[in-house]
Amino acid sequence: MPAPSRTSILAAMATTGSPREGGSADCRHAPATERNRGPILEVLRAVLPAEGRVLEVASGTGEHAAYFAPRLAPRLWLPSDPDPDLRRSIAAHARLAACPSLEPPLALDARDPDWPVEEAAAVVCINMIHIAPWAAAEGLIAGAGRLLAPGGLLYLYGPFRRDGQHTAPSNAAFDQSLREQDPAWGIRDLEAVAELAAAAGFGPAEAIEMPANNLSVVFRRL
Ligand SMILES: C[S@@+](CC[C@H](N)C(=O)[O-])C[C@H]1O[C@@H](n2cnc3c(N)ncnc32)[C@H](O)[C@@H]1O
Asked: The whole model's pTM is what?
């Protein structure tokens, strides 16, 4: 299975390699995480189970993990990414956060048929399914369906099309730029994602509007 195209993913995240204050050279920085983490945290606080492990698929730089883990304790936060350099960044941000509920990053490609995780109460995936081939969305939702018990929660964040339409001109322009970088990328139809979720044993999508024309999308395992 080919690895995701690393150079273009890092470009799409607008990451910089400059170490954060007090951090190591492994710490990467994605500016979007500082803008979206507050609104995402509000939703996570409202929808996550009160305890248990939260598996984060596609943790990227690890900045979300370092921010969310202490604020969502006593839940355990398990970050993951298929990219080894990004896992080093996750580990470096985790060292700075020094949070006992933040677990070491896992090597996890959502497309893998077997995920190296035994149990989780929730799966969280932020800004991945439009910056990866559709097979990553299929793998993510099938894997979450296998992992989660009834009542378990799958949380997605990012831009989506609704009823076949972009929800804002800025999303249409973003979609075009993604497809120019990689024809397999692009903003997904919420209805197509909800169909995958239904096939994997989840209930209907709950969509919550977020700043900058993004959505939080919550599915509960039936
Ligand atoms: C745009 S970044 C988002 C990272 C982070 N969630 C954030 O919001 O900053 C996309 C991430 O998806 C990861 N990714 C791409 N394909 C993947 C796959 N098949 N399985 C898991 N992660 C994948 C990349 O390595 C990268 O970390």
From this structure: 0.95
Q: Write the single-letter amino acid at 216.
A: S
Query: Helix (H, G, I), strand (E, B), or coil: what is residue 65?
Result: helix
Please state the domain extents for the chain: 36-220
Pairwise CA distance, residues 33 & 38, whole Å: 9
Residue type, 86: L
CATH architecture assignment, domain 36-220: 3-Layer(aba) Sandwich (3.40)
Q: Give the tens place of pLDDT for each residue, 90-147.
A: 999 999 999 999 999 999 999 999 999 999 999 999 999 999 999 999 999 999 999 9
CB of 9 sitting under 6 A from ligand 1: yes
Cα separation, 165 vs 48, in Å, equals 29
φ and ψ of 180, to 5 deg = -70, -35
Q: How far away, in angstroms, is 203 Cα from ligand 1 center?
A: 25
Helix (H) or strand (E) holding 208: strand 206-210
